[in-house]
Amino acid sequence: MSAIKEFEHLRIPLKAIKLATNNFDDNNYISRGGFGKVYKGELIHLGKSMTVAVKCLDRAFGQGNPEFWKEIMMLSRYKHQNLVSLLGFCYEDGESILVYEYLPNKSLNMHLSSNDLSWTQRLKICIGAAKGLRYLHDPGRTMQRVLHRDIKSSNILLDDNWNAKISDFGLANFGPANQEFTFLFTHPVGSFGYCDPAYVESGFLTKESDVYSFGVVLFEVLCGRLCIVDYNDNRRFLSKLAQSCYEENRLDTIVQDGLLEQMSRECLRKFSTIAYQCLHKDRTQRPTFTKIVRELEIALQFQNQDQSTFQRNDDFAPITPSASKDEYLKDTLAAYRSAAADAAARMQAASRARSFKRRKKDVESSNTEEEARSIIAAMRIQNCFRTWKTRKDFLNKRHQIIKIQTIFRGHQVRREYTKIVWSVGVLGKAIVRWRSKRRGHQGLQVDPNNVEKDENQENNGMEEPAGEHVEKSVVRSDSGLADQVEKEPA
Questions:
Q1: What are phi and psi of 31, to 5 degrees?
Q2: Which residues in 187-213 are b (16+ Cβ under 10 Å) and which e?
Q3: What angle do helix axes 265-278 and 289-312 make, rounded to 10 degrees?
Q4: Is 231 helix (H, G, I), strand (E, B) or coil?
Q5: What percent of the chain is modeled with pLDDT above 90?
Q6: DSSP β-ladder status, 156-158 and 164-166
Q7: What is the pLDDT of residues 276-333, one digit of tens each?
Q8: Fewest C-beta in 10 Å: which of 16, 128, 272, 345?
Q9: Rg of the chain's alpha carbons, rounded to an integer?
Q10: Are 408 and 453 in contact (CB under 8 A)?
Q11: Cα–Cα distance measured from residue 19 to residue 24, given in angstroms and rounded to the nearest whole number
C-alpha cells in the first residue's frame, strides 16, 4: 500500500484505459513481450488527447508485482531523453497496467534486416541507446546506479525521428552511487543469446554484464540479424560468429547486404572494434558506456567525413551497383593503399624538413632522388658529429667527477683517521681507570706512579699520544702476569 501512495499522482483509472483501447480490442494490439500484451490507445490525459502504449501484466507469462512496481519506481525517478517515458499506471480490479508514450517506429529488432535504416541512422540509434545506458550506470551523486539486466534490440524503442529509447526495466537492479557493486544470483535471468557468459556461469552480475549485452546489439545492427543465426546450416550465437570473423579480418562476410557499400572503412573499423571489446571474456577489459559513446561518436565523424570525401574525390568514387562486392572491396582497398602511401611520403618529407628547421617543397622533378640522397648524407654527418661531441663531453665530465670523488674520499679518510686515534686514546684511559679501581685482583697489578701520572695529565689537560698509552698499558699487564707465574708453586 505504501508503494501505491507514493505514486498516487501517476494513477490512471481503469475505465479511462479501457476507453482508450476500445476495451483492449484486437485491432489495437501491438505485440507481446516479457511483461504481457501491448496495446495502442488514444488517451485523454492531463486535459489533452495523446497516443499511448498500454502494457498489461500477464502473471502467467513470467513477471509479477515486484517487476511491476520496480518499473514504476524506475521510470518515475530516472528521466532522460533516451529512456522511455512513463505516463501512468493502473492497479484496479486485479489488473496491473503501465501506460507509456507511444513510439511509432516500434522496436529496433523489427528493422534489423530491412533497408529502412541507413548506416548513418543505425549509428545514431546505437549512440542514443548507449547514452541512455550511460545515464543508468552513472546518473549522478544523489541517484542510485541501475543495472538493466535485459538489454536487447527488442527493448530499444524508436520514436518518429528514429531516436533510441531504452525500455523494460522489470529486471533492473539498483546499486549504491559512486561505488563498485556486484549482485549474486543463484538463478541468473535475462534473454537467451544476450546474457553475459560470466554472469551465467558464476551468478555474479556487474555493470560489465550490461556492456556485453550491448555488444551483442551492436553486432546485430552491423550484421542485420538477431543474436541467434543460421550460418552454414548451423545454428550459432551471433556473438561467437562475429568475434571469430573480427579476429580473422573477414567481417565483410557477415555484414548486411547494402550496408557495406555505405560504410567508411575507418567507421567500420572503429565500430567493430568497440563492439568486439564489449564481448571480451575478461570483464575488466570491457569498456564503460562513457567510452562506448565516445568511440561511436568518432565512428560517426569518420562516416560523415568519408561521405563528403567521396563526393569531392573521384579516386574514391563508389563502385557502380553493377559491380560485385569483391570488385568493390578490391578497388576500395587499392585506393586506400595508394592514399596511405602518399600520406606516408608526405609525413616523411615534413619530418625531414622539421629536423633541418626549414621548409621543403614537394619536388616531383627528376632530381628528387638526388636531393633525397643529399639529405640522408647530411643527416648522417650530423649524427656522427653529435656522437663524437657527446662522447667528448662525457669523458670531460667523467674526469671531473673522478677528481671530485678523489678529493672527497681523501677528506673522508682523514676524518676517519682522526676519529680512530681519538677513540684509541679514550679507550686507553678507560682501561687505566678500571685497573686502578681493582688493584687487589691478581694479574691486574697497576703501577701507582703511572696512575698518578695519568691523573696529573688529565688534571693539567694534557694528553699523551694514544700509541704510547696503549703500549704502557700492555707492558703493565705483561709484568703482572709474570709476577703471578713466579708466585705459583712448582
A1: -165, 175
A2: ebebbebbbbebbeeeeebbbbbbbbb
A3: 170
A4: strand
A5: 23
A6: antiparallel
A7: 999 999 888 999 999 999 999 999 999 888 765 544 444 433 333 334 445 545 555 5
A8: 345
A9: 44
A10: no
A11: 9
Global pTM value: 0.61
- The CA distance from 145 to 181, in Å, is 9
Q: How are the residues of the chain apportioned to helix, strand and coil, as percentages rounded to the nearest 5?
A: 55, 15, 30
3-state secondary structure of 443: coil
CA distance 405 to 393: 18
- Looking at the DSSP bridge assignments, the partners of residue 38 are 31, 55
| Catalytic residue annotation | 150
Give, in order, the Cα–Cα distances in Å from 159 to each of 38, 46, 77, 444.
16, 22, 21, 111
Backbone angles phi, psi at 457, to 5 degrees: -65, -40
Measured in whole angstroms, the distance separating CA 485 from the mean position of its chain's CA atoms is 88
Cell of 151: 538489454
If we measure between CA atoms, which residue out of 252, 303, 259, 307 comes closest to residue 116? Answer: 259
DSSP letter at 21? T
The structural domains of the chain, with segments of one domain joined by +, span 2-101, 108-312, 427-487
Name the CATH superfamily housing domain 2-101.
Phosphorylase Kinase; domain 1 (3.30.200.20)
Q: Identify the CATH homologous superfamily for domain 108-312.
A: Transferase(Phosphotransferase) domain 1 (1.10.510.10)
Q: Name, of 193-202, 336-345, 404-413, the range with top average pLDDT.
A: 193-202
Q: Between the CA of residue 290 and those of 71, 134, 136, 296, 345, what are the distances in Å?
A: 24, 6, 11, 10, 36
pLDDT tens digits, 141-192: 778 888 888 899 999 999 999 999 999 887 888 876 655 555 555 455 667 7
**Which among 472, 464, 486 has a CA at the least distance from the CA of 435?**
472
Grid coordinates of 144: 542510485
pLDDT at 429 over 90: no
DSSP H helices in 313-362: 325-355
Q: Are 164 and 125 in contact (CB under 8 A)?
A: yes
